[in-house]
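fyi for ur records
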Amino acid sequence: MHAAHNILETVLDVQDIDASCAFWSAFGFESIETQRAGTSNEQRLLTSPDHPAWRLRLFLCRPRPVVGTTPGSLRRITLHVPDFDALLDRLPASGLRWLEGPGAEDGSPVDAVRFYNEDLYLIELRRLV
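which gave:
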């Protein structure tokens, strides 16, 4: 018998399911299951060997009307990553709205960045130390 593992599943509403899958692939996530393919209620389950205890379920939906916190909504997704600089290089060149970007004015190393992705989720990346 195998030991049970805790798994965190985060469900995200997305406007373009293919673009969202491409975005999350920069973090090592791959789609392992599709439900209701081709419908307005399509959803995909993503997993990553880099984050074995975390699954993402993407739901296709209408555009979100607001940015920021709404009761019952997800406020921010923070990832602590060991290969911080390589991950920044894999992020899409467009579609991100940077709040704290990857380049410090004095050229010093940056340990955290924050941005909104195309689905208006606030993503924070931190260098794992």
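Strands lie at 8-14, 30-35, 43-47, 54-60, 77-81, 97-100, 112-116, 122-127. thats all i got for now
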